[in-house]
Design a protein that fits this description.
alpha+beta; Ribosomal Protein L25, Chain P; RNA Polymerase Alpha Subunit, Chain A, domain 2; 2 domains; 6-stranded mixed β-barrel; 4-stranded mixed β-sheet; 13 strands; elongated
Length: 212
């Protein structure tokens, strides 16, 4: 997995007053969890653009007053009006301990269903996986060459070396629907219920509701 370096400054003072002051200076307050102690720091908002405004996932090399850590992005908070970044949480990771990361999916191959006039329906753009840092790829490649009209690929259908997939196994990743159903505005899950497997489609809908 690719890395991105961010240089920050350790916070000497905490509290709402200090946090408000940092934000006025276009600094982003951050917290890194996962180590022996939580680490509070800040960095200029411009340093996070390549990390936040991209579908890519990075290992973050944090340089905080000369102390170096490796972390992954956990959560971002945006201002409800301006959409400026107001807070970021990181998780510290270690070479010898598995990390949990959402990694983007990349579809490969030329689907039979698409060649036959079907329409692609992708329900998931990422998968949550668990593995050692050395085994985390930039993308999770899923071959859809054999996916015909009415077929779908579920989470349980895909495997990746040295990675454990944490998403529900029956949840759909991608499918191909007929042009007729696509014209009616129906997604792959509806086609799955109507043409592929009604029972599986119902279970998937239930699991998705539980996730949300």
């Amino acid at each position: 997995m690719k890395s991105l370096e961010i240089k920050g400054t350790l916070r000497k003072e905490l509290g709402k007053k200090e946090t408000k002051k940092l934000r006025k200076e276009n600094m982003v307050p951050c917290v890194m969890y996962g180590g022996e102690n939580n680490v509070h720091f800040y960095a200029h908002e411009n340093l996070f653009k390549d990390l936040v405004y991209t579908p890519k996932v990075f290992l973050v090399d944090l340089n905080l007053d000369g102390d170096k850590y490796v972390a992954i992005l956990k959560e971002i908070q945006f201002h409800p009006v301006t959409d400026k970044i107001i807070h970021i949480d990181f998780i510290q990771i270690f070479d010898d301990k598995p990390a949990t990361v959402k990694i983007p999916i990349e579809l490969t191959g030329s689907s039979i269903g698409l060649k036959n006039g079907g329409k692609l329906r992708q329900r998931r753009r990422t998968l949550k996986v668990k593995g050692l840092v050395a085994d985390l790829p930039d993308t999770l490649n899923i071959d859809i060459s054999d996916v015909n009209i009415g077929d779908m690929v579920k989470v349980g259908d895909v495997k990746f070396k040295n990675l454990e997939i944490l998403d529900p196994s029956r949840s759909m990743v991608v499918g191909v629907v007929s042009s007729r159903l696509a014209a009616k505005g129906m997604g792959a899950e509806e086609e799955g219920a109507e043409e592929v497997a009604a029972e599986a489609g119902a279970e998937e809908t239930t699991e998705e509701a539980k996730e949300e």
